[in-house]
Amino acid sequence: MRQIILDTETTGLDPKLGHRIIEIGGVEMINRRLTQRHFHEFLNPEREIDAGATNVHGMTWDDLKTRPRFADRAAQLIEFVRGAELVIHNAPFDVGFLDAELTLAGLQPLQTYCSGVLDTLRLAKELHPGKRNNLNVLCERYQVDNSGRSLHGALLDAELLADVYLAMTRGQESLAISLESAGAGARAVRRAAGERPPLAIASATDAELAAHAAYLEFLDRDSKGKAIWNRILAGPPAGGSAAGGDA
């Protein structure tokens, strides 16, 4: 299972208003282990950067004018993500910007090249409904050290998100999947499963059985004999059928 944890920084909030990507960072994970392979580029957005965005990531257009354009690095990005599942926090934002940049470069949308996109913000909201779920909060919640994050940065944020994602989905580690050769170059998939402990069976006590019987009698009296539990327990009458109007 190959995943790319990805993040971007931009000139503003909306690609439909002409805003562009200025930084892309991604780290590779295979079978839930970071491989140390990464993709990282600062990009010339060919336009000014909103002051609000500069306050977030600290970069201005003057810092980036000598950097390559997105189109100059698009092929390398596509090869890095090709066939992988992308793991992105607030995925619609980043995917929207990446699709806009790919369109300007005359290329297909992002999901043409990858196997899918997992939105960790959506996952966090499902796990922690009603709570704040930005990256800083998640780092604190899952005890991921983000002390070096004074400003947003695509590669740093991707590395932090990788640790957060592993913590959020830690239970999946027990579903280890091993690949073994089978036949002439074929691959067999086997799920490694440990032995399960025997299930504990707790039988009802005499007092609990008596209380249950008393409750059934109460229901029968309260419904004026219309309750069917006692009749089911007694079984069908001799020569009769279990089916009837109460079935």
Helical residue percent?
A: 25-40%
Strand line-up in the sheet with most strands: 3-2-1-4-5
In the predicted model, the low-confidence regions spanning at least 5 consecutive residues are 174-196, 241-247
What is the structural class?
alpha/beta
Q: CA-to-CA gap between the ends?
A: 50 Å
For the record, what is the CATH homologous superfamily label of the largest domain?
Answer: Ribonuclease H-like superfamily/Ribonuclease H
Report on this model:
There is one protein chain. With 247 residues, the chain is α/β, with parallel strands linked by helices. The protein folds into 2 domains: 172 residues, Nucleotidyltransferase, domain 5 (2-Layer Sandwich), CATH 3.30.420.10; 35 residues, no CATH class. Helix content is 36%, strand content 20%. It is built from 9 helices and 7 strands; from the N terminus they run βββαααβαβαααββαα. The strands form 2 sheets. Strands 3-2-1-4-5 form a 5-stranded mixed sheet. It has a two-stranded antiparallel sheet with strand order 6-7. The longest helix is centred in the C-terminal third of the chain and has 17 residues. The two termini are 50 Å apart.
Summarize the structure.
The protein has 247 residues and is α/β, with parallel strands linked by helices. The chain has helices spanning 51-57, 61-64, 70-81, 91-104, 120-127, 135-141, 154-168, 206-222, 229-234; strands at residues 2-10, 21-30, 33-42, 85-88, 116-119, 177-182, 186-191.
